[in-house]
Amino acid sequence: MPSLQQPLLIVTDLDGSLLDHHTYRWDAAADWLAELQRHQVPVVLCSSKTAAEIAPLQKRLGLAGLPFIAENGALVQMSATRQVRIPPQSPDYDSLYQQLKALQATYRFKGFHDFSDPEVAAMTGLTESDSALARQRQASEVIVWRDDEEKLDAFRAALQQHQLQLTQGGRFWHVMPAGSGKGEALRWLLTQYDSAPATLGLGDGPNDAPMLDAVDYAVVIKGYSKTPVSLSRQDTQRIYATAHYGPEGWKEGLDYFLTQPD
């Protein structure tokens, strides 16, 4: 089992995991966040949110200055002045958007680029100011699929021709560069450490599976997605599925792996 006394890195999804799916609050996780800070255990946020969304939230969580993974693993923010797209040299947002715009002639979908801040707020429950931050994308696009479900496979194939891939999040679909993802971003991030710490990951959605497969210990938080979190790893003794949703499940997962017996 991992220990607070050893080099340890916590990697966590936000929406539906550390943050409540409906209210975006993290009250139930607050005591553990304080305990991790006291033991100088870094908490790396790993989210579909943009860097513009994560940076102020990171400060409110008491995690300012730590690296974080944004846009479902298409971007790693190492510091205030250093960002890395995953994979490196992948296309920027403007190029990705132009490729998607061409595909809208064949498939019915809209991206966050096509919506206004009030429209995104209505879909997500975010405030309009937070919705503006969610639309400040740098490496991927969030889309609302409005075509037939059976056309998704053809859409995936069309994306592949442009070196893009489709990932399902908790609420929306995400179009990202091929070879990106939460798992790939985490693996790249760990190469930046002189000696790799033990890793414990927490997530609730299908898009979290690559990250949960890449960590040493995985907490699958009970989620609302119709698609279950399916892991490829077989070391079941290092996987814990929670009975609770959101930050209550987050707390439950850390209690399971990190609470030491008396």
From TrEMBL:
GO CC annotation terms, alphabetical: cytosol
SUPFAM superfamilies: HAD-like
InterPro entries reported in the protein's UniProt record: HAD-like_sf (IPR036412), HAD-SF-IIB-MPGP (IPR006381), HAD-SF_hydro_IIB (IPR006379), HAD_sf (IPR023214)
Pfam family, one: Hydrolase_3
Molecular function terms from GO: magnesium ion binding; mannosyl-3-phosphoglycerate phosphatase activity
GO biological process, one term: mannosylglycerate biosynthetic process
Record-annotated membrane-spanning stretches: none
Swiss-Prot/TrEMBL keywords: Hydrolase, Magnesium, Metal-binding
The keyword rRNA-binding is assigned to this record: no
Signal sequence, start to end: none
PANTHER family assigned: HAD SUPERFAMILY HYDROLASE-LIKE, TYPE 3, PHOSPHOSERINE PHOSPHATASE
UniProt protein name: Mannosyl-3-phosphoglycerate phosphatase
Organism: Pantoea latae
